[in-house]
Amino acid sequence: MNQKNYYDILGVSSKASAEEITAAKNALAKRYHPDANVQHGIDTTDKMQEILEAYRTLSDPAKRKSYDRALNGHHSVMRTFDLFDEEEQQEKDSGFVIYWKAANTLHEIISEGEPLFHKREAKGRLSALAIRALRPIVTLRTAQIPERYWHPDIMNWLLFTSYQHPNYTVTYLLALYDNHVKTDYSIVDRAKASKAAARYEHTVKKLIKR
Questions:
Q1: How far is residue 4 from each of residues 1, 71, 75, 173, measured CA to CA in Å?
Q2: For a Cys staple, 24 with which of 10, 13, 55, 180, CB 3.0–4.6 Å?
Q3: Which tens digit of pLDDT belongs to each residue from 55-104?
Q4: How far from 31 is each of 27, 39, 50, 192, 193, CA to CA, in Å?
């Protein structure tokens, strides 16, 4: 199964303007918003999250620039990282992709658990999710990747860069990311990225304390 890129998800050209990207997101949101589909018994939550993830990257000039650079250079390579073929791919995994997959698994668990935090009747489900989260967390910690780098946007950037420079160590990749944020992000974008990473780290800790 080929993995769609963010442009495919929004149904726009890679040359699309910011206005076209926003218009596409709005049109898809109307179609796939869970509230608009619940009456038909269709759960479109995952689809909506996919749309918003694509929009968050493509609507941000700095993130889009980094994404385009990585996509243009490694589109054919990235298609091999299909999470739906995990068992078939597992023996072939090496390098940073192992940690990237662990982070993606963790993100899926966090996304499933976050809406349940304030529901008393969901305590058992949250406990089960916390147990599931332990394996990817151990993988990331064993690789000495601090929690502040576990946010999906950061792990995606690290993966792209690791394939540009396969000999780089994890420690050096993290240093490159920090430098990338300092040099390529505006003050406002740095603050947003830092806040998003901190919020995600807090959510992970909140889950595993269950």
A1: 9, 11, 10, 25
A2: 10
A3: 988 998 888 888 887 777 544 444 444 444 444 444 444 588 899 999 99
A4: 7, 13, 13, 28, 29
